Amino acid sequence: MRISDIRGAVQLATHATTGVTRIVEEVHQSVWDRLGVPGGKTPGKTRGVTGAVYRLVHDITRVTGKSANTVISLLESVFEADGNKLSRTPRGETFLSILNGVMGDRLVEENNPFAIPMAFRYRELAPGQQVPLIEPGSSGKVLLLLHGLCLSVVYLNVVMMIKLV
Fold first, then answer.
1. CA 56, CA 68: separation in Å to the nearest integer?
2. Does pTM top 0.85 for this prediction?
3. Which residues are CB-neighbours of 114 under 8 A, at least 6 positions away?
4. How high is the mean pLDDT in each 10-residue block of the chain (165 residues)?
């Protein structure tokens, strides 16, 4: 595991913690609503001591996440100065593809090292590798697949079985 992997995992954990806390608070307030207890100023938010506890959890999570991200980024710049990103194993590639398919925009916004840039792919060639424009013996027909199945293994197998005649 590389330092950039740890940075990505910390960002995901921070995002997950704040997201789960938000959901729990909304459920909490939903129960209060059924009992006739008024909520906070914003729908789904609690008030009073309960609201303060949820805000504290959010604030501590954000500060901890940002602090860890800053420290890890400094370590990353020292130890991974070569610019290499995550090691790409088939299992890791599948995980990252699914993650990007679900929340890729958020990963890009947060400069998460798990973000995969949009790219053309040819069979098993990774982005940036030399890709032949026309395969010998092809019919000249074009098959363009857009925003598929998060580059899942099934998708890769289907694409590899397709042969343009």
1. 18
2. no
3. 8, 11, 12, 86, 96, 99, 100, 107
4. 82 93 94 90 91 94 92 75 54 77 84 77 59 66 59 44 42
